[in-house]
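Q: What structure does this chain adopt?
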Amino acid sequence: MSSIEAQRTYALVGTGGCGKTSLAEMLLLQAGVINRLGKIEEGGTTLDFEPEEIKRRGSIQPALATYEWKGDRHFLMDLPGDGNFTGDMDLLLLAVDFVVFTLDAVDGVRPLTKKHWQAVKKAGLPACCFINKLDRDRADFDQAYAGLVGLGIKPVLLYAPLGKGSLNGLVDVLAGKARIFQADGSVREEEIPADQREVMRALREAAIENIAESDEALMEKYLEAGELSQEEILRGLRQGVIQGDLTPVMAGSALENKGGRQLLDLLAAALPSPLDRPPLVSAQGEELRIDQAGQPLCFVFKTIQDPFSGVLSIARVISGSVNSESSLKNMRNGEMERMGTPILLTGKNQSPTKDNLGPGALLALAKLKNTHTGDTLGPDKLNFSLPVPTLPPQLISYALSPKEKGDEEKAYAAMQKLTEEDVTLRLSRDEETAEIIVSGMGQLHIEIAVEKAKRRYKVEILLNTPKVPYRETIKGKSQVQGRHKKQTGGRGQFGDCWVEFEPMPKGAGYLFEDAIVGGVIPRQYIPAVDKGVQEAAGRGFLAGYPMVDFKARLYDGSYHNVDSSEMAFKIAGSLAFRKAMEQCRPVLLEPIVTLAVSIPDEFMGDVIGDLSSRRGKVLGSDSTAGITELKAHVPMSEILRYAPDLRSMTSGQGVFTAEFSHYEEAPPPVTEKVVAEYQKVRKEEE
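A:
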């Protein structure tokens, strides 16, 4: 085997708290990268090194590790599991060849587990599964295993836990032997205890049958002979895994250093190399076969701000190879980038290398001039860029304000730098309210970003609930005169217009109709009336929100040869709007979002009751594998702080997405409250 054929590039995927970072720690210990297991509770793990991660005892960003197992290089990426930090998972999964799907033996399959598995399948990646935490009191391997089947996974159990209540060893199902854990982390081979032999024999037969089904020739031989050789079993297993038909499953305990060696051997024996990937399809629809000897191509899947090296572009070598002499073109902007010395990462440790790094290598590139997350780098004459997946919409927004007055630009600049590093964080300025709005995947996501801004850029930022983007519209018609006449000595101001206002269908916007005949208003002044109406509509009438879905028909008026001007008619149009609104029965419109909530079945009643209290309308529900997915229309104002409330209601197991749907007329109590708040603010400003 060549080194690339034996290389492995993979991600650890699973929900928050399932032990992925501890699993990575165990693998690094077994590979000899570290000499002791670091503990999350003590802030001592290799891959959770950011101060915010140590403080909250959980991953908030993907971390990389490079190690060797039996002389072959492996690249590992530990992905966060908390829904606040998984918004870019589809993008990150483009950088790996398979995943180690990690499951908590205590909690089993949760709603977020299902979403993570859907992301893995959407990416078309093979997987193996590590059922972790079998050292815990309430661990239930059988329940966790059944949950995998409920997800639609076709599992092949290779290492089962030996006994119940504690993890003393594993049963190597295919070999038919027990592996007993020793105090130093090694294993001792024994016969399977007599009381488990029958069960394990049945498991072995089921595993071999599933493996044989992945290959017609193997299936024929198995049906004829009733047995397969060890070599045939491993070949069939690897083929079934690469095809995505089979998912090997094993038990273990990362905290107790149990199962790491078996997992590493499994990755080497049965999971794909970078050369096993199917051809890649570019954004232009062209195919590219992965070839170590082909043209060099890299994909930047993450950008990080390093305190010592500055901006680091984290990339995967897609095809060909790169080294410190490489110069590649950014396919997005056409600019050439000098790679410099590639850096291999293991947590915060950086190892510059002069090696030629081939397909599958995960590396950091320092000081690229104009390269961002999602960019493809390749030869000057090649036109190939990987399509960047559409990421899920942000779920929550806050208005930013600096703690110290005068630090507005400093606060904005700090958050802007963080958005370059985190593509799921969005920063904008609200033209209606003049607020700086930061949007993210959850309250914790935004709070962590503010903590980073304070630590890195020395600016303290306050988070305020942003204003809901209400709208106003009218339900009645009116014909009014807008007349502006002012004499101030010398030339005066005169503009006179008659305008008819009427409602338009929902979503139709604004329409201005010029119905002037006979030149009662000169042509050059008519656009000014339109502009005056639009500017007044932008300021609203009831509560300061833009007026939408109405028509203004200008049909009569008068002018003065000397005193009329564009400004005078603009003011006249504005006055006509204000007068008409008193007669047109204006109403407040509130934004409605489509809320999709995934929860364990037992919480369905509580969640539906809560949605009803928020004026939500449930559109439907679907339940599979103990997880209910609800869809509902809910006013945006009612879910500004839904994330912590849902977490509290479902013991941290509920997840949701929200997308804007439409506007609806707000009920009178809501309108009265919004109008009262608006009038209060206006009085304070006077």
